[in-house]
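For this section, I looked closely at the sequence of one protein beside the tokens encoding its backbone, which the following lines show:
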Amino acid sequence: MTAQAIAILSPGDMGHAVGRVLKERGLDVVTCLAGRSARTRALAVKAGLRDVADLATLVKESGLILSILPPASALDNAKHVAAAMKETRRTPAYADCNAVSPSTVRAIGAVIADAGAPFIDGGIIGRSPAHEVTRFYVSRPDTSAMTALDGKGLAVRDVGPAIGRASGLKMCYAALTKGTWTLHTAVLLAAESLGLGRELKDELLFSQKDAYARMEAMVPRLPADSQRWIGEMEEIAKTFTDAGVTPAFHEGAADIFRLLAATPFAKETREALDGSRTLDEAVRVYAETLKRKR
């Protein structure tokens, strides 16, 4: 096997789709499924990724490692990979593509640098390559290991030499998108709890049709991703604090995702979402969950 495979850690919703488009363009794409869930294993098989036995083998065979996983796991993942690098004396480039703050990504970069490997700060914006050409923003003095993937089912954009720039851009973008979804949810929850759900809906349909359409499209779907998005909101709050901006908006967004993670809908996966669930039905269950948690 070539020692220049692309490694994906881990092949979840985004990771497996990234691996699939790279493999479709002729690249050798590997992963390590040891200890991973049955769902992650199924996604990796669906994408056609090559499974290796352990991180040491993955490091030996890779020229580039893409870390794509929940933000709360990003630093620990880097520590495990760095240990494998030291064990094998192999130092492939490591790109952290997780939704973490600039300060967190600098801590991750220090772990990888201590192992002697090149580190690239990455931020993913957009839906997975299964739906569109996903944008990978990257920063480092030399991002060539990542920019070589531009046009291979991905769009890779260099945003400068400083570690933290790519992650900062991702944080600001997600602050708007996921922050707006949680604001929509909070507004609907408050109205429902005040017994004004019907009245607010009528007014929104009269004066805010576009906003209401966005609520219908996203709010019923949020619980499936809510658990892993808690950490992302916490990282955004950290980013805002470091930038001198109030973190309170996204601390509140994290609270909304904690609530959604406590609903029965949180057991769904993206593959098994109930597409027939209406916004009214979703908000009613969210409000019932909120009442129980008070």
User: Anything to note?
Assistant: The chain has two domains: 5-160, 168-293. Residues 47 and 204 are 41 Å apart (CA to CA).
